[in-house]
């Protein structure tokens, strides 16, 4: 829901502009920090009312310059005509002028997005199935059998990691997840980040370090101090002492 920012006094008038695509889209104006700009700026979030309720967020300053690109992106999961998008841009300007926006600490976090709850669990099940169907690709740390570029991940069975993450915990490489989830193309890493954020929000992805990255630093071989980064999951029933 849009809310009126209290710092600004806005007088309601008969000329208030309604959302021109209300039947198909929920539109929300956001205000916050973006790393591309020194000043706070605006972004607009589009959420389709069609199946899936997917959403996309763009910087307001880019709406006209990247009009065709953004229109195409929205039509991937929703329905928007060129004339409607022009009206939406005017509507966003109205929201901006009248202070109808929601403050967020970091616009980039919202713009990058995350997977929905249902999708997060569905994709997590794909990871679980891959782990159990090819257990040799996920050796234990204590076996010292992990091979970078060959193994898909590693089971965290040593005392150091059991005390940190608990039992039945496994680390999966980025490359393995891209293969398991069948992600390819130029946007595959962005898509994986969306999925990983969804996993984290649902408590499926474990994260203990204070670093911004969602992967955790792990020493996958007991005989080496070399550190690799893995996405960490708890999967009941994995082979572990």
What is the end-to-end distance?
A: 50 Å
The amount of beta strand, in percent, is 15-25%
Number of domains: 2
Overall 3D shape: elongated
Uncertain spans, ≥5 residues at pLDDT below 50?
A: 1-14
Précis, in short:
The chain is an alpha+beta fold and 241 residues long. It is built from 7 helices and 9 strands; from the N terminus they run βββααβααβαβααβββ. α4 crosses α7.
Topology:
Blueprint: E1 25-33, E2 41-48, E3 55-59, H1 67-77, H2 82-97, E4 102-106, H3 107-112, H4 117-133, E5 153-155, H5 159-165, E6 169-172, H6 174-180, H7 188-201, E7 205-206, E8 216-218, E9 228-234
Parallel strand pairs: 1-4
Antiparallel strand pairs: 1-2, 2-3, 5-6, 6-9, 7-9, 8-9
Helix pairs in contact: 4-7
Characterise the protein shown here.
The structure is a single chain. The protein is 32% helix and 19% strand. With 241 residues, it is an alpha+beta fold. It folds into two domains: 25-112, no CATH class; 117-234, no CATH class. Strands 5, 6, 7, 8 and 9 form a five-stranded antiparallel beta sheet that branches. The chain has a four-stranded mixed beta sheet with strand order 3-2-1-4. The model is unreliable at 1-14 (pLDDT under 50).
